[in-house]
Amino acid sequence: MEQLLEKSAALVQRIRSEKKRYLYNEINWNNKLIGIKGARGTGKTTLLLQKLKELKLLPTQGTYWSLDDFYFTTHSLVETAEAFFKKGGQYLFLDEVHKYENWSIHIKNLYDFYPDLKIVFTGSSIIDISREEGDLSRRMLMYTLSGLSYREYLAFNNLYNFEPIALEDILSKDRKWAEMFPAEFKPLVYFEDYLQYGYYPFSMEDKQGYATRLQQLVRLIVEYDMAELKGFDVRNAKKMLQLLNVVAANVPFQPNITNIAKKSDIHRNSVVGYLHFLEQAQLIKLLYASGISLATLQKPEKVYLDNPNLAYAFSTSSPNVGNLRETYFISQVSVRHKIAYPKLGDFLVDNTFTFEVGGKDKTSKQIDSVENGFVVADDVEFPITKLPLWLFGFLY
Question: Which residues form the signal peptide (predicted)?
Fold first, then answer.
């Protein structure tokens, strides 16, 4: 165990803590058991190490372990945690829990046997606590970490620091949100850069190699992480990548299951399930008609990539502008709100607000008869009668 404590101490010492993801201050760190899930590359590991650094504990009191460490191929998590607890351990931060077989049962045992030990763990976005063998759902607080918002992107690149804006404030008629931006703020200067490079924090490490790294990340998710999904046969990973390429070439679109099956070489009876798997992995987003129950797998009305950066990573040419606008909107708004496909307009949010998304010349003609309808326009900084698209990147 000593080598684990030494690794943890070294990582904590090196981590920088000036900038923290939006989720950091939303987590109730006092809870005894906390879970954080999210896609690869969104900053889960950094978040754990930053909290551990803030606690200012001795390595024997608070430690970070990655469960894909070779150490755990020959050592038991429970026995190692027991030894840590006996040495005065108070906080146990576990990363990549889905890499450890039957992880939920082991964490449940630690929770039950060591009431004074606080456990925080992270795992892939594919984790479904309700289907795990260890009954953790009533014992824990579960959070999901999304990629960088446009607001965070500006802050992480030392451009501007702004507070988040709630949706009801964005939609308010008094438009007080405009007062928080200084006169010199030009939101569109950095917006295109965000759409191409801004969603994953690692873009700041190597912007030139970002697209290649993003493609590698997607392959790792499909070929490695998705093996943990119940009902997914890892031998079909290649077909999943083919399906993702088909979706990337057409999004947003109303899926024709038969055509998708032909292009991706997947049996049509399996296409809907595979789309659901890709959504669990935070690679795509599925939009369903309003009022539809999602208790069983159903064909979605529209399919989008999870975020605009993926559109650039998969496109052989410049992505469709309309596609980017809608993908940006759904990626930012869906973090805090429920989105459905309305009868009129592009998006129905929280079953209350209807949005039509377009360029600066977009009119309200399509949603004139809709109560609580709003036009969201791209290519404008502070429009008078419309809402600027970039502003929805300030929701978190």
Answer: none
If we measure between CA atoms, which residue out of 231, 260, 234, 265 comes closest to residue 248? 260
| Tokens at 222, concatenated | 């499909």
Encode 4-39: b = buried (16+ Cβ within 10 Å), e = exposed.
bbebbbebbeebeeebbbbbbeebeeeeebbbbbbb
Main-chain phi, psi angles of 304, to 5 degrees: -125, 155
User: What is the crossing angle of helices 103-113 and 77-86, to 10°?
Assistant: 30
Q: Report the distance separating Cα 348 and Cα 339, nearest Å.
A: 6
Which strand (E) or helix (H) includes residue 374? Answer: strand 373-377
What single DSSP character describes residue 149? -
Instruction: Report residue 190 as tokens.
Output: 């950095």
Query: With bands split at pLDDT 50, 70 and 90, how would you rate the model's confidence at 223?
Result: confident
State the pairing for strand pair 62-66/91-95. parallel
Which residues does 138 contact at the CB level (< 8 Å), separation at least 6? none
The C-alpha atoms of residue 33 and residue 317 are separated, in whole angstroms, by: 46
Single-letter code of the amino acid located at 253: F
Coil/strand/helix, residue 127: coil
